[in-house]
C-alpha cells in the first residue's frame, strides 16, 4: 500500500447525445455510427475512433455512471484521488451527463453522475461502518467535505459563497491556487462545506449549481458560461487491513500484540463540467456572451496544449504548460499527476456539427495517451508503520535463512547463498527428470514384454495346432507360463545387473588405498557383505541347476523305458483324460507358485520347461527358450 506510484492511463469514454427536437425539425441527419459490440465510433463514412467506452444515443444515465464512475468512488475509499471531466462542444450534453443542471422536474433515472456518486459515497460509508460493527472491529471514522468552484473569465469563483452578489464575478477573486511539497494542488480562500449525509451534499450541489453562470445562446438555451469544478474530500481513519500485505509474519505479529493500528487515508474527487467550445458565428454571441465565449475557448485551448504535451510521446520530457490557464493549473493533479482520471467526450450526432464532433474526437484521442502516476494518500505515521512492518518481515525471513543454513557469510565476509542450496535444487530437478524417464522406460519394458509373450504364445499355439493338439485351455496355460518365464527372466537380468554393479563398486573400493588401508588392506564387513551374498546366490543357483539337470536325466531315462513298454496306440478317451490331468496339475502348480519364493518359482519353471522338452522328443518343435530367435528354434 505504501509502495511507489502506479502508472494509470487516462480513460476516455465517448457519449453521443440523442438528436434534439430542434435538430429533427430542421432535418439534420445522423452522421455517427457505433460499431456493435465494439467501443468504436465511425464518423461520416470513414473516420473511425476507438475509446475505452462508446455510449450511443440511447444509453441511460445509470449505465454511464456504472461504467465510468463507480470504480473511482470505490478507489477513493482506498485512498486514491479521482477526476471525471466532461468535454465537448456547446450543447453536446456535458451538464446533462454530469448532473449539475438541476431541472425542477428531473426524474430519478435522469440523475447525472454527481448526484449518483454522492449517493454511492454515503452508501459506502454506511456499509463500512456496519461491516466493522458486525465484525466487532473499531468503526472507521469518516469526514467528508465539499467545495464548488467556477472558472469564469479566468477568475476562480466560489459557488458556496452565499455572500457574493452577481456583480462580484466581475471583480478579482481572492481564491488562490497553491502547490504542496508533493506537487498536489490546493486552493486557499474557498468555502469548504462539511457534510454528513447525501441529502445535505446534494442540497449544497444544487445551491452551487444555481448560482453558476449560465445564459442562453443560439446553440443551447441553458449554456454553461463557466467551467465548474465540484470537489469532494474524503478523510478516513480505519484499522489497518493486514490482508493487503498478505504476509503471514505480519499477521502473527498483529495477533500477538492484539493492538489495533490505525491508518488515515485521504482522497479527493474532482467532478468537472467544462463549458463547451463554441464558434461565435454559430452561437450568435455578442457583448458579454462573446467575451465569455473567447475566455472559454482560451481555457480549452490551454487544456488541449497540456493534453498534447502529456499525450505526445516525443514531447513527454518537455515542458507541460499547466500555468498557461487557471483551468489547467486546477486540473494539474488530474492530468499527468496523482489521480485516476476519466474523460467523457460528449458529441452531437447531427451532421451540421460534423466539424466540432471531429475536433472533440481528436482531442479525446490525444487524452488517451496520458499516463498518470496514482498512489495511495496515506498519512506519514501509517506509511512508516507499513514500511516497518515490511522491513520486520524481510528481516525475519533473512534470519530464518541463516538458521537453516541457506544463507551464509563467506571467509571474505561477503554474504551469499550456500552452494549446497544451489546444488540441492539442481539435483532435485535432475532427480525429477530421471524419475520421469524411469517411469517411461518401465512402461516401455512392460509393453515389450507383453508383446514378446504374445508372439511366443502364438508361435507355440501354431506348433501345437499343426500337431493337432492345440486347445484354448492349453493355449492359455502356455501363455501364462511364457509370461511367467519372461517376468523371471527380467528379474534375473535385474539381479545380474545389480550384481555386476556391486562387483564393480567393490573392485573400485579395493583400489582406493586411502579409504580402505591400501590394496590388500582390510575391508569393512559391511562392504564385503554384498559381494559375499552375490557369490552365495550364484553358488546356490549353480547347485540347483545341477540338481535339476540330474533329475531331468533320470526322468528321461524312466520315461523312455516306460514308452517302450506302452502300446503304440492310445484311445481318444485316455488322451482326453491325460490332457485334463495335465491341466489340473498346471493349475495346482500355478496356485502353489503364487505363494512360492523366487528360487522355488525359478526351479518350478525349469521343471516345466524340462517336461516340455521331454514331450518335444516325440512331438513337433516348440521353442525351448523364449529368448532365442525364431530361426534357431527348430
Ligand atoms: N443524453 C441526453 N438525453 C436527453 N437530452 C439530452 C442529453 N444530453 C443533452 N441533452 C439535452 O441537450 C441540451 C444541451 O445539453 P447540456 O446543457 O448538457 O449541454 P452542454 O454540453 O452542457 O452545453 P454547454 O457547453 O453550452 O453548457 C439540454 O437540453 C439537455 O437536456
Ligand atoms: Mg453545460
Automatic annotation (TrEMBL):
Matches recorded under Pfam families: KIF21A_2nd, Kinesin
Annotated positions binding ATP: 88-95
Segments forming a coiled coil: 378-505
Ranges of biased composition (kind: Low complexity): 619-634
Superkingdom, natural source: Eukaryota
GO cellular component: cell projection; microtubule; microtubule associated complex
Annotated GO MF terms: ATP binding; microtubule binding; microtubule motor activity
BP GO annotations: microtubule-based movement; mitotic spindle organization; spindle elongation
InterPro entries: KIF21A/B_hel_1, Kinesin-like_fam, Kinesin_motor_CS, Kinesin_motor_dom, Kinesin_motor_dom_sf, P-loop_NTPase
Location in or out of the cell: Cell projection; Cytoplasm, Cytoskeleton
Main location, first listed in the record: other
CDD domains on file: KISc_KIF4 (cd01372)
Keywords: ATP-binding, Cell projection, Coiled coil, Cytoplasm, Cytoskeleton, Microtubule, Motor protein, Nucleotide-binding, Repeat, WD repeat
Region (Disordered): 550-589, 612-634
Occurrences of domain Kinesin motor (ranges): 9-370
Family (UniProt): Belongs to the TRAFAC class myosin-kinesin ATPase superfamily. Kinesin family.
Name of the protein this chain belongs to: Kinesin-like protein
Organism of origin: Perca fluviatilis (European perch)
Amino acid at each position: 500500500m505504501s509502495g511507489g506510484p502506479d502508472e494509470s492511463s487516462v480513460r476516455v469514454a465517448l457519449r453521443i447525445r440523442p438528436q434534439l427536437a430542434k435538430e429533427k425539425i430542421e432535418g439534420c441527419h445522423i452522421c455517427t455510427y457505433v460499431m456493435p459490440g465494439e467501443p468504436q465510433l465511425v464518423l461520416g463514412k470513414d473516420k473511425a475512433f476507438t475509446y475505452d467506452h462508446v455510449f450511443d444515443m440511447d444509453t441511460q444515465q445509470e449505465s454511464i455512471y456504472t461504467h465510468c464512475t463507480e470504480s473511482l468512488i470505490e478507489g477513493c475509499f482506498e485512498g486514491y484521488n479521482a477526476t471525471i471531466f466532461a468535454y465537448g462542444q456547446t450543447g453536446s450534453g456535458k451538464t446533462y451527463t454530469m448532473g449539475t443542471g438541476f431541472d425542477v422536474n428531473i426524474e430519478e433515472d435522469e440523475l447525472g453522475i454527481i448526484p449518483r456518486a454522492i449517493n454511492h459515497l454515503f452508501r459506502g460509508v454506511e456499509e463500512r461502518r456496519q461491516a466493522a460493527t458486525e465484525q466487532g472491529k473499531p468503526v472507521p471514522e469518516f469526514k467528508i467535505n465539499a467545495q464548488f468552484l467556477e472558472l469564469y473569465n479566468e477568475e476562480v469563483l466560489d459557488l458556496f459563497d452565499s455572500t457574493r452578489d452577481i456583480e462580484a464575478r466581475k471583480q478579482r477573486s481572492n481564491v488562490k491556487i497553491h502547490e504542496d511539497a508533493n506537487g498536489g494542488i490546493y486552493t486557499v480562500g474557498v468555502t469548504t462545506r462539511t457534510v454528513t449525509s447525501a441529502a445535505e451534499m446534494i442540497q449544497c450541489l444544487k445551491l452551487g449549481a444555481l448560482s453558476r453562470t449560465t445564459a442562453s445562446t443560439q446553440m443551447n438555451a441553458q449554456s454553461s458560461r463557466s467551467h465548474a469544478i465540484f470537489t469532494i474530500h474524503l478523510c478516513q481513519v480505519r484499522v489497518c487491513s493486514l490482508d493487503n500485505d498478505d504476509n503471514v509474519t505480519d499477521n502473527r505479529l498483529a495477533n500477538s500484540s492484539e493492538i489495533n493500528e490505525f491508518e488515515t487515508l485521504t482522497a479527493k474527487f474532482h467532478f468537472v463540467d467544462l463549458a463547451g467550445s463554441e464558434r461565435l458565428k454559430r452561437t450568435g454571441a455578442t457583448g458579454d456572451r462573446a467575451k465569455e465565449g473567447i475566455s472559454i475557448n482560451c481555457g480549452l485551448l490551454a487544456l488541449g496544449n497540456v493534453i498534447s504535451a502529456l499525450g505526445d510521446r516525443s514531447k513527454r520530457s518537455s515542458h507541460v504548460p499547466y500555468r498557461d490557464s487557471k483551468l489547467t493549473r486546477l486540473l494539474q493533479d488530474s492530468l499527468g499527476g496523482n489521480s485516476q482520471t476519466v474523460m467523457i467526450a460528449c458529441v452531437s450526432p447531427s451532421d451540421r456539427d460534423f466539424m466540432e464532433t471531429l475536433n472533440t474526437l481528436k482531442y479525446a484521442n490525444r487524452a488517451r495517451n496520458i499516463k498518470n502516476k496514482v498512489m495511495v494518500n496515506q498519512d506519514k505515521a501509517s506509511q512508516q508503520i507499513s514500511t516497518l512492518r515490511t522491513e520486520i518481515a524481510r528481516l525475519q525471513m533473512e534470519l530464518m535463512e541463516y538458521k537453516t543454513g541457506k544463507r551464509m557469510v563467506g571467509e571474505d565476509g561477503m554474504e551469499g547463498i550456500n552452494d549446497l542450496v544451489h546444488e540441492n535444487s539442481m539435483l532435485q530437478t535432475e532427480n525429477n527428470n530421471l524419475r520421469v524417464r524411469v517411469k517411461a522406460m518401465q512402461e516401455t519394458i512392460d509393453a515389450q514384454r507383453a508383446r514378446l509373450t504374445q508372439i511366443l504364445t502364438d508361435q507355440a499355439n501354431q506348433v501345437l495346432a499343426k500337431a493337432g493338439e492345440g486347445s484354448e485351455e492349453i493355449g492359455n496355460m502356455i501363455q501364462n507360463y511364457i509370461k511367467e518365464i519372461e517376468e523371471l527372466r527380467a528379474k534375473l537380468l535385474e539381479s545380474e545387473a545389480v550384481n555386476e554393479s556391486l562387483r564393480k563398486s567393490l573392485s573400485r573400493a579395493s583400489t582406493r588405498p586411502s579409504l580402505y588401508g591400501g590394496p590388500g588392506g582390510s575391508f569393512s564387513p559391511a562392504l564385503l557383505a554384498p559381494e559375499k551374498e552375490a557369490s552365495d546366490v550364484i553358488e546356490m543357483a549353480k547347485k540347483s541347476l545341477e540338481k535339476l539337470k540330474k533329475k531331468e536325466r533320470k526322468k528321461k531315462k524312466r520315461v523312455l523305458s516306460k514308452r517302450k513298454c506302452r502300446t503304440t496306440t492310445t484311445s481318444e478317451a485316455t488322451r482326453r483324460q491325460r490332457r485334463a490331468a495335465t491341466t489340473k496339475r498346471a493349475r495346482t502348480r500355478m496356485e502353489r507358485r503364487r505363494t512360492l519364493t523366487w528360487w522355488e518359482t525359478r526351479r518350478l519353471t525349469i521343471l516345466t520347461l524340462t517336461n516340455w522338452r521331454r514331450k518335444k522328443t516325440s512331438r513337433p518343435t516348440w521353442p525351448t527358450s523364449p529368448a532365442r530367435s525364431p530361426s534357431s528354434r527348430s
